[in-house]
Amino acid sequence: MTVLDLAPLTPMHETVRRPLYTETTTSQALYLPIAPPTLGTAGAVIGRELYSGKAFIYCPFSAFGDGLPGGNCIVMGDTGRGKSALTKTYCARQIRLGRQVVILDTKEQTEREEGEWSALGRALTGNPPVKFAPGDAGSSCVNPMDPAITGKRQIELVRTIVELGLGRALDEFAGSALRIAIRRAHQRAADEDRQAVLADVASSLRAPHEADAAAKQRSPHELLADGLEASYVLDRLCGSDQDTTGDLIGMLDGPTSLSIDLDADMVTFDLTRVPSGGVAMTILVAVIAVFLEEVWLRAKCECGSEPGQHERVTVDASSGAWELGANPEAGCRRYTQRKRILVAEEAWHILGTPQLARLLEKFLKFARGFGLACIFIVHHLSDIDDSAETKAALTMADTIVVYSMKKAEAEDTAKRLGLPAWTAEHIMRLRRGVALWKVGDVIYPSVQHLLTEAEQHLCFSSGSMSDLSNEDPQND
C-alpha cells in the first residue's frame, strides 16, 4: 500500500489516526510518542494501555475538570468479553478509596440463585443483597409513601407509578384527585400512628371527602370518578385485602424494609426475580431511583458528618462568600463531599424505557453536584431505542468503554456515539478483556483489564456455560 492509497482527506475532510492492530514491542515503541496522556496517578488501577505499556488508572472524581466534565460512564460489548468483570473490580477498588456503591443487579447467576453482584457485596460488606421478589413473603420492600421522600417528589413518584401501570399520562382531573388522596392517606396513617402505604391512597381515591370535592368545585361523585381508574391501577399493582396477585405484591405495598442499610459501602439491589419485560421492573426501578435520590444521595462529608456539622469559613468578606471548613468533633479539617457510584446491570431496561430515562435524567444531569458517577452496562446500543430520552442519556456519558463486537454492532456503535471512523473495525478486533476507552475527548484504543487472584472468583459470571478446567475469569 502506498501513501497515496491512504486517502488522507476523506470527502468530509476528516483526519483520523489509524489504529495499530499488532501488539509487538516494535509497535508499542512507535506508539509512545503519540500516545494519549495518562489520567494521572490517583484513582483505581484498571490495567494497562497495550500500545504504550503504561498503567491505566481511572477515577472520574480525580480526573474531573481536567478534560473530563463528569463521571457518567457506559460500558458495552458482546457477551463474555469482560464488561461485568471490569465494573466489579473497579467498584471494589473504588470502595478502598472511600467511595460508596449501589448496584441495580438484574443479571442472575442461576447456579447461585441470586444476582451476580451478591457474592461481591457479601465479601466487601458482610451484608446480604436487598432481594426483591413479587409475591414472596421474604421480599424486601421500598415504600413510595416513605416520609423520607419529600412531599413534591412523593407526589411525582406515585403519579409515575400510576401512569406506568396505566400505560398513559393522567389528565388534570385524575392528577388532582391523586394529590388529594395522597394527602388524605398521610392523615389517615398519622391518626393510626403508622406509615402510609399505597393501599391508603387507593382507599382515599375511592372514598373522597366532601370538603375536598367542594374545594375543587366538584361533587363527591365527580371527584370519585376522577380518581377511580387510578385506584384500580394501584389495586392491580399492589393488591388488596381480597386480591393478593398484584404485580408488585411484597415489594412496594408496605413500610420500607429495615434491612436496607444505605450507609454500607456497597448496597446490592437484587432484581433478578422481577420480570424484566413487564411493568413491574420499570416501576420498581423508578421507585428505587427516587428513594436513592432522596435518602442515599443526601450530602455527607467523607468523614461521615453532615454539612451542618462543619464550620462556615468566609472566603470573601465583601461578597459574603463562604465554604464549609473543619468539623473539630470528627477531626475533619475540611468538608469534602463523599463520592458515590451507581451501577445499573443490563441497563437496557432503563435506557430503553423513556419514562425511566427521563426519571434518571436528574441523576445524570446533576451527578457532579451529587458527587455521583453513574455506570450503565449494556450489550449493544441496538438493545435500546433511539428516543430523545435515550439520546440525552448517551450524550451525558463522559466515559465510554467498548469491548469487542461483531461488525454490524461495531459500526452502529461508532456511528451513534460519534466515534472516529477507524474505531468500528478496531472494536471488532479487540480480544477478551481488552476495550477501547473514550475518556472525555481522548481515545485509548486498547486498555487491558487486569484482575488480581483474589478478585477472580468474585468476578466470574459464566459458570453455567463453562468447563471448570477451562475457566477464564476475564469475562462477564
From TrEMBL:
Q: What's the protein here called?
A: ATP/GTP-binding protein
Q: What species is this protein from?
A: Streptomyces mooreae
Q: Would you say which domain of life the source belongs to? A: Bacteria
